[in-house]
């Protein structure tokens, strides 16, 4: 379980507060107006931003002071963070060792991860030769290889068309179910929230609210969210 206990952070004139819990193996959307603090919330959980107040717990362990690399977290960003001079296999292998000196067991795991995301046989290709969807799959394979129990998605598929985006979200959901990972997905698209996440965290007026049923929230949005969704 992920717990954010009395969290508060101030960045200039912006402030965000959160006091909520997320059950294990959840698929959770994070929605709110532009600039409301969706990415800030993920940065707090991932360790890229320290709270001014409060504690963050994972399965009862206090992770507030842990650096990003020691947290049980993997990130997927809109910028897939692929290195253009490296092959698909090398980009994925970075999830295991930055020096890419992989053992035979690690190489076998890498091969299985590429098979899992539908990239078998593409190990030697460079990112520039891949489609947008294939690049997203490379980034997802790297996350899969890291095998962290908490996956944070900061609109990684926003640049994809509707059909391909839906396909990628289905793939993430399947992998998360197989590994029992907890997923938090920032989105501006209510349809993505409905299809992926039974529950949603609304960020509104400086507060990340406790999860609520996605359908209920989107069918009867509060005024701020209604204005944002149009």
Automatic annotation (TrEMBL):
Domain of life per record: Bacteria
Keyword S-adenosyl-L-methionine: no
PROSITE patterns: ABC_TRANSPORTER_1, ABC_TRANSPORTER_2
Keyword Membrane: yes
SMART domains: AAA (SM00382)
Pfam families reported for this sequence: ABC_tran (PF00005)
SUPFAM superfamilies: P-loop containing nucleoside triphosphate hydrolases
Keywords: ATP-binding, Cell inner membrane, Cell membrane, Membrane, Nucleotide-binding, Translocase, Transport
Listed GO MF terms: ATP binding; ATP hydrolysis activity
Residues covered by the ABC transporter domain: 2-230
Name the UniProt record assigns to this protein: ATP-binding cassette domain-containing protein
Source organism of the structure: Paracoccus alkanivorans
Source lineage: Bacteria, Pseudomonadati, Pseudomonadota, Alphaproteobacteria, Rhodobacterales
């Amino acid at each position: 379980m992920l717990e954010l206990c009395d969290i508060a952070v101030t960045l200039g004139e912006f402030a965000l507060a959160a006091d909520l819990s997320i059950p294990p193996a959840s698929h959770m959307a994070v929605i709110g107006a532009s600039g409301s603090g969706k990415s800030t919330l993920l940065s707090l959980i991932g360790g890229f931003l320290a709270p001014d107040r409060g504690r963050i717990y994972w399965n009862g362990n206090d992770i507030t002071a842990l650096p990003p690399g020691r947290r049980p977290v993997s990130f997927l960003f809109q910028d897939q963070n692929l290195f253009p001079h490296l092959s698909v296999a090398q980009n994925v292998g970075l999830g295991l060792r930055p020096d890419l000196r992989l053992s035979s067991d690690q190489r076998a795991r890498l091969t299985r991860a590429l098979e899992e995301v539908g990239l078998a046989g593409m190990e030697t290709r460079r990112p520039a030769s891949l489609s947008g969807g294939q690049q997203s799959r490379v980034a997802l394979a790297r996350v899969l290889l890291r095998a962290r129990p908490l996956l944070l998605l900061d609109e990684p598929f926003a640049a994809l068309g509707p059909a391909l985006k839906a396909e990628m979200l289905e793939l993430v959901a399947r992998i998360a179910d197989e590994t029992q990972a907890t997923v938090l997905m920032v989105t501006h698209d209510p349809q993505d929230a409905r299809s992926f996440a039974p529950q949603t965290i609304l960020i509104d007026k400086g507060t990340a609210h406790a999860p609520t049923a996605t359908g209920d929230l989107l069918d009867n949005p509060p005024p701020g969210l209604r204005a944002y969704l149009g």
